Amino acid sequence: MTDMPDLLRLAASAARHHAQRQAVLSANVANADTPGYRARDLTAFREVVGDMPMRQTRIGHLGGGAGAARIVDPGTPGDPNGNTVSLEDQVLRGIEAQRAHDRALTVYRSALDMIRASLGNR
Fold first, then answer.
1. Strands, DSSP E only, in the chain?
2. What is the CA 15 to chain-centroid distance, rounded?
3. Segment 52-111, tens digit of pLDDT
4. What region does 79 belong to: left with phi over 0, alpha with psi -120 to 50, or beta?
5. What is the pTM of this model?
6. Rounded CA gap, 116 and 74, in Å?
7. Rounded to whole angstroms, how far apart are CA atoms 54 and 1?
8. 74 and 92 in contact (C-beta within 8 Å)?
9. How far apart are the C-alpha atoms of 81 and 33, rounded to whole Å?
10. Which of the residues 43, 51, 58, 72 has an alpha carbon 20 to 30 A from that of 94?
11. Full 3-state SS string of 55-69
């Protein structure tokens, strides 16, 4: 039962990260016609999770973390006006971010349900 707070914290961090990613992708869509606008995205959550405290189970198990989420340029080719937003790409990335956000919330709710059940408050 000692792993539950870490699981809750990880799920909450994942939900926050994917919500932030949805906001970045929304800004991309909003600027789809802005000359010179560069499409942006967040680093993958698996790279950010290095900030979470983890326990080493054997020598060489955890090789280090990557740091906080940062906005990156996904490297998509630009239009003649310099805009790099591809609406099709943004829609697919948005769906991916929404699904990841929903998964994180499902894990969070399930962990809370397990805690409630163990306390007899289910």
1. 41-42, 71-72
2. 7
3. 555 555 555 444 333 456 777 777 778 888 899 999 999 999 999 999 999 999 999 999
4. beta
5. 0.74
6. 42
7. 16
8. no
9. 9
10. 51
11. CCCCCCCCCCCCCCC
